Structure formats: C-alpha cells, structure tokens
C-alpha cells in the first residue's frame, strides 16, 4: 500500500507483480506514466490520482470519480491487454474508447455523464471488450461504434444489458461479438454491416416491434448460444453456427448477402424462415418452427447433409428457388410445397410427398435416391393433374395411387402427369388408381 504524498520521483511507475494499492490520494507524482504488467494489479482504492498515462496488460480497479478538467470534455481510452474496472459514478462527458483488453463496468454512469442528445461514436469498441458485470440499461444517447479492429460486449451470467441506441460500424469489416453467458437486449436498429457472432449467452430483440440488426450482417450463433428474434419480422445477411434461434411469432429472412452457409443448430417458434439471395442455406437438424419456410427465386435450401436428420415442422414450403433433400433416412413430408421452384432429391433416404403439393418447378431425382408421390398431389385440380414440372429421374420414382373411399376419389382415381420425364431411372406405379402420362 502506497500512502505518502511526498513522492516526487520524475520517472515512470511500473507495477510488475503483485498489487499496488493506494492508501490516499495523490501518492503517484503528477505526470508519471503508469504501467501495470500482466498478472499485476493497480488498486486505486477509491482515491483520486493524476497521472500522465495508464497502460499495460494487468488489472486496474478504479472506484473513484473520473471528471472533466477545467471545463474540457474529458475522454477515456483503454489500451493494453489488461482489465480496467470502473465502479464510480463518473462525470466526464467525452468519448470512451476500448482499443485493447477489457473495460469492466456495472452501470451506465461508469462511462461518464450520458449525452443529453444522441451522440454517435460516444463509445467506441475497437479491438477490446466491454464487460458488463451487473445488468442495467445503457443510455440510448450513448452511440456505440464497432471499430475496424472489431469489438466485443461480454455480459456476465444471469445479467442483462439493455440498449436502445444504434450500434454502428466504422466500416463493413468491423465485426461484433456478443460474449458471456448473460443477455444483450437490443431495442434500437443497429447499422453495422460487419459480421455478428453470438459466442455465448443470448442476443435478443426487445419485442416484436423493436430491435434489429443490419440486413447485411452475417450472423453466427455458436453452440450453446441463442439468437432470440422475439417475434420480430426482420432480416440478416445470413445465418450459420450450431446454436439456437428462437423466432417467436416473427419471420427471419436470411441470405441477402448471397453467401452459402450451414446452420446445424435448432430453430423454434411459430414464426417462419425465409431464404433470400442466391446462395445455399443448409439446415442439418430437425427444426421445430411451424411457420412457413420460404425460398426466394435464385436461392437454395438444403435439408440435411447426408445423415439421418434435416427436416422442418412447417406445414407450408413456399418454394420459388430450389429445395434439396439430402438425407440417409426417408423424409416423409405431409405439408404443402407450392411455388415455381424445383425440388432435388439427392440423399439415399429419399423423399415421400403425402401432401396436396402445387409447386410447378422441375424435379430431379439423383442416382441412389428415390421419390414417392401419393394421390394427394392429384387433389389440387378438378382434372386431377400433378402440376410438377419436368422430372429428371436417375433413380426410382414411385406413384402410389391408392384411392380413398370417400370424396373426392369415391373409390376410383385417375391421375394425370402432363410434363416430361427423362433420365436413366425406373418408374414404379402402385395402388389401384390409374396414372396417365401425357408428356412427350
């Protein structure tokens, strides 16, 4: 513990190991450059101190007040790989920059007096981490900028940081990471276009009407982490990772960045998922969301990666792009596939369609796979026609035409397929119904 106010050395002050604790104010000579080495600690102990600079990879705990000097808007810059902990109700009004290491806070006031109006770039995270140890609501006027060296907000377990302002990016390469087991709740519309990584905990929108990320940001949800859309109808550039996405009643649109990504995690809720853009979105798991799966023109959704899983609980697939089924176990889909898009079956498990499908795109059955079409695909038209486009069959297609006793079959079924079938595969017709092929 350092308690003498008579120190007048003119050199720097280095805490190379252990802890230097201040016993009173002004014990370090004014203007001395202070460096805290890795593993060492400077404990300000609530005392006021004027120094030339503060750097290093060690830890600094400051419970006193950082204030403006002589009417100037004081600023705070955290450099070095160490941790600076602020716990005082600081009154400085300038910018806070975290350019390396960790700045740890537990209240909005730790960052100084909040601006009276919106101040963009009032908090810059550029290569460092802002750690939140106790939950609070950050001032909406305190604009956050993610720098070109990227930035992280780490929220401690069981804590929630709520922020209604804008998170902007210094450029399109400024990437943001949500770390820590706690929750970051956003009610503002963030504008940064760099990547978003949810490495732990939860990143959520505050409600169905508030909170958004840029429609260009590529979102990765790591295993164990959660992206909670919370009922919002919103867009992101793409989705990837192995975590959990909870839709609520909202619809998440992903893929506008035209990239191809694989998402191996869970997606739940009563809302829907829309694949935009020209890339491929591969969904590996059996997903439980019940809203529509929509594939926009030019895009592809692949269900499965050749294993036993890859399905949706949705009763509606609106396909204007390409739907690819790639499983080792038969996928029986009882919902309705509609739209102008095509369907490709490439896994050894194959696909069985038992719903009243109305899509008009082409069908491709790759070698080693199989497709079964039952009578339900004849039900959409009075003339009992299968409306699929041309079929390229390099494996096996089974038309399982078993009429039902009641309406509309009344025990008899004639089903017409007017498009063209080609390929090296075989056609199997089962059931007592009649299949009429009229394509050339």
SSE diagram, text form:
Elements: E1 13-15, E2 19-21, E3 33-36, E4 41-43, E5 53-56, E6 59-62, E7 76-78, E8 83-86, E9 96-98, E10 102-105, E11 119-125, E12 129-132, E13 136-138, E14 142-146, E15 151-155, E16 160-163, E17 167-169, E18 176-179, E19 183-186, E20 196-198, E21 202-205, E22 218-221, E23 226-228, E24 234-236, E25 238-241, E26 244-246, E27 251-254, E28 261-263, E29 266-268, E30 272-275, E31 280-283, E32 286-287, E33 293-295, E34 300-303, E35 311-312, E36 316-319, E37 322-325, E38 331-333, E39 336-338, E40 342-345, E41 351-353, E42 363-365, E43 370-374, E44 391-393, E45 396-400, E46 414-417, E47 421-422, E48 426-430, E49 434-437
Parallel strand pairs: 1-3, 2-4, 3-5, 4-6, 6-8, 7-9, 8-10, 9-11, 10-12, 11-14, 12-15, 13-16, 14-17, 15-18, 16-19, 18-20, 19-21, 20-22, 21-23, 22-25, 23-26, 24-27, 26-29, 27-30, 28-31, 30-33, 31-34, 32-35, 33-36, 34-37, 36-39, 37-40, 38-41, 40-42, 41-43, 42-44, 43-45, 44-47, 45-48, 46-49
Structure explained in plain terms:
With 440 residues, the protein is an all-beta fold. The chain has a domain at 292-440. It contains no helices and 49 strands. An eleven-stranded parallel beta sheet has the order 2-4-6-8-10-12-15-18-20-22-25, with no helix packed on it. It has an eight-stranded parallel beta sheet with strand order 28-31-34-37-40-42-44-47, with no helix packed on it. It has a seven-stranded parallel beta sheet with strand order 13-16-19-21-23-26-29, with no helix packed on it. The radius of gyration is 30 Å and the shape is elongated. 48% of the residues are buried.
């Amino acid at each position: 513990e350092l308690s003498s106010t008579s120190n007048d050395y003119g050199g720097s002050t280095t805490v190379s190991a252990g802890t230097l604790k201040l016993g009173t104010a002004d014990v370090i000579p004014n203007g001395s450059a202070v460096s805290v080495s890795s593993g060492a600690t400077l404990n300000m102990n609530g005392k006021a101190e004027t120094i030339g600079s503060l750097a290093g990879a060690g830890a600094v705990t400051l419970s006193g007040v950082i204030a403006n000097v002589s009417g100037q808007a004081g600023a705070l810059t955290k450099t070095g790989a160490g941790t600076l902990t602020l716990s005082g109700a600081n009154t400085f009004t300038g910018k806070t920059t975290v350019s390396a290491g960790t700045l740890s806070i537990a209240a909005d006031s730790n960052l100084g007096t909040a601006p009276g109006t919106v101040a963009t770039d009032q908090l810059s995270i550029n290569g460092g981490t802002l750690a939140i140890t106790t939950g609070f609501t950050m001032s909406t006027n305190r604009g956050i900028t993610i720098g070109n060296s990227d930035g992280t907000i780490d929220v401690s377990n069981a804590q929630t940081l709520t922020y209604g302002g804008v998170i902007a990016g210094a450029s399109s390469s400024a990437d943001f990471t949500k770390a820590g087991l706690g929750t970051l709740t956003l009610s503002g519309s963030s504008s940064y276009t760099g990547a978003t990584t949810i490495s732990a905990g939860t990143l959520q929108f505050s409600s169905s009407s508030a909170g958004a990320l840029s429609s260009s940001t590529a979102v990765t949800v790591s295993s164990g982490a959660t992206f909670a859309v919370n009922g919002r109808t919103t867009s992101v550039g793409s989705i990837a990772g192995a975590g959990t996405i909870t839709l609520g009643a909202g619809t998440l649109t992903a893929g506008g960045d035209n990239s191809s990504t694989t998402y191996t995690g869970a997606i739940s809720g009563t809302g829907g998922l829309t694949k935009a853009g020209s890339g491929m979105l591969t969904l590996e798991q059996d997903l439980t969301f019940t809203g529509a799966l929509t594939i926009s023109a030019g895009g592809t959704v692949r269900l499965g990666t050749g294993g036993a899983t890859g399905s949706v609980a949705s009763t509606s697939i609106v396909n204007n792009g390409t739907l690819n089924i790639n499983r080792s176990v038969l996928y029986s889909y009882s919902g309705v596939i509609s739209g102008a898009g095509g369907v490709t079956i490439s896994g050894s498990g194959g696909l069985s369609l038992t719903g009243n499908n109305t899509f008009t795109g082409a069908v491709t059955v790759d070698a080693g796979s199989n497709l079964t079409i039952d009578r339900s695909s004849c039900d959409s038209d009075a003339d009992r026609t299968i409306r699929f486009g041309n079929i390229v069959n390099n494996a096996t297609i089974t038309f399982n035409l078993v009429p039902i006793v009641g309406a509309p079959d009344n025990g008899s079924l004639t089903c017409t397929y007017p498009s063209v079938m080609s390929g090296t595969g075989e056609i199997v017709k089962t059931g007592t119904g009649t299949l009429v092929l009229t394509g050339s």
